[in-house]
Amino acid sequence: MYIAKQKVKGKDYYYLRKSVREGKKVMSKNVAYLGKNKKDAEVKAKEMINKIENEKKIKVEKIEKRKEINF
């Protein structure tokens, strides 16, 4: 994931983006809007990335518990 700046009518807007492969092409997908200020955008991006990583860890833990119960 990375921070991308997009200009709209002369104003800067910051987004958290990720690259996703669709067939043979690699596309950029917006994950979250981060605001108009670069410093604030960097702080929000770190928070969003940490939140996403924590959610992934929780999902993995739930899957592992289900596997343990089934055996």
Can you tell me about this structure?
By secondary structure, the protein is of the alpha+beta class. The protein has one domain. The chain has one helix at residues 38-70, and strands at 2-8, 11-22, 25-35. Strands 1-2-3 form a 3-stranded antiparallel β-sheet. The mean pLDDT is 89.
The span between the termini is: 37 Å
* Integer count of domains: 1
Strand content: 35-45%
SSE-based structural type: alpha+beta
CA gyration radius, whole angstroms: 17 Å
- For the secondary structure, the number of strands is 3
In terms of per-residue confidence, which ranges show pLDDT below 50 for 5 or more consecutive residues?
none
| Rough outline | elongated
Order of helices and strands: EEEH
Helix content: 40-55%
Please, what is the average pLDDT?
89
Number of helices: 1
Strand order, sheet with most strands: 1-2-3
What does the oligomeric state look like here? single chain
**Biggest beta-sheet profile:** 3 strands, antiparallel
